[in-house]
Amino acid sequence: MKLVYLLSFMIFFLASCGDSPFLEDEEGQEEQGTNLLSQQLSLNSGIQISPYWASGPTIASESKISFLILDKDSRPINQQLDIRVKLWMPTMGHGSFPVTIKYHGLGLYQATDVFFTMPGYWDIHFQIFEDGAFVEELKWPLDL
Ligand SMILES: [Cu+2]
Q: Ligand 1 mean position to 128 CA, how many Å?
């Protein structure tokens, strides 16, 4: 039931934003939508983040991540959070930044300017800040 609600919510978002992973991009390349709702990441506070690839992930060219932020009862947090996305290669000690975050309302965000500069293992950090101070984060792993 929860999933049905989420899906209809995401479909509404996809329809309204035109950045659907099910559609082809401008280059006519088929985009990957395989990670859609495959992740439900939970923070200590009970906040959940559902990320999916709106574009990519690709190496060197821009990727985009859309994500939905839900409260502990799985309802969209309809208020903009100070959330930041950091790309990091933990085995190599470097990252790629800055990533741009835009809030679309109803708990939905999009991260653009996501550039994976090389193949390998990346951690995508979703970081929550309050009053400019880091509160907590979670990592979404990616093998590229
Ligand atoms: Cu590297």
A: 25
